[in-house]
Write a structure and sequence with these properties.
The chain has about 190 residues and is an alpha+beta fold. The chain contains six helices and eleven strands. About 35% of the residues lie in helices and about 35% in strands. InterPro entries: Methan_mark_17 (IPR016762).
């Protein structure tokens, strides 16, 4: 993850970089961030955190994170991305009932009375949910007490503008400007 910090207090940049990296790692989001730009103006107080994700958030289906094999009216699922195991099981239980879903091992699930086509298309994680998680992770990296926030989202770029009290037009314009710069940077980040 490439992190750029622009701050009026240069002496705190390394600490803030470490804090940002640690929090994003702790919540499991560091891997997804290609670049982060942190604008820190604590004297105002005013902060802009803009991140570029490696990929655009999209819905995840069972076929995205598991291999599916049909045998008669039964389906065998081998989970290839462990992070989604609880979501897969929850969705299968909801659709087919617990009595028809048997988790044989940590990664292998057997489903009775199902078709491969149905199972392949079951959504287990929404792109919207992923965005909410990323925004929440960015909020956690901001100083405590900074509760007035505005978020810009376009494709792979999320920018959060934050202050303690009331936004000025200039603050929102600055946030949008950095958001656009991050979008224009594209693969050159």
């Amino acid at each position: 993850m490439n992190i750029e910090i622009i701050s009026e207090e240069v002496f705190g940049n390394d600490s803030y970089r470490t804090l940002f990296e640690d929090i994003m790692s702790d919540v499991g989001k560091a891997f997804h961030v290609q670049k982060a730009l942190l604008i820190l103006q604590p004297s105002i107080p005013f902060f802009i955190f803009s991140i570029r994700l490696k990929t655009e958030p999209a819905n995840k289906t069972i076929s995205d994170v598991a291999n599916i094999r049909a045998e008669g009216d039964s389906i065998f699922i081998t989970i290839t991305d462990e992070r989604y195991a609880p979501d897969i099981e929850r969705e299968l239980w909801a659709k087919y009932g617990k009595e028809n879903v048997d988790q044989q091992t940590r990664f292998d699930i057997f489903v009775k009375n199902a078709s491969a086509n149905e199972i392949e298309d079951i959504i287990i994680a929404s792109g919207e949910g992923y965005l909410k998680e990323m925004i929440g992770a960015v909020w956690r990296t901001m100083p405590e007490g900074i509760k007035v926030r505005h978020t810009y989202i376009d494709g792979t770029v999320i920018t959060v503008v934050a202050t303690e009290e009331i936004f000025t037009r200039e603050m929102l314009a600055d946030g949008l400007e950095y958001h656009k710069k991050m979008m224009e940077a594209g693969e050159d980040v």
